[in-house]
Amino acid sequence: MTTAANPTATNSSGAKRLYLCATGEVAPGTALKIEIEDLALAVFNVDGEFFVTDDLCTHGPGSLSEGYIDGDVVECNFHNGQFNIRTGEVVSPPCIVPVKTYPVTVIDGRVTIEV
Ligand code: FES
Question: pLDDT at position 4, please?
Answer without folding.
Answer: 47
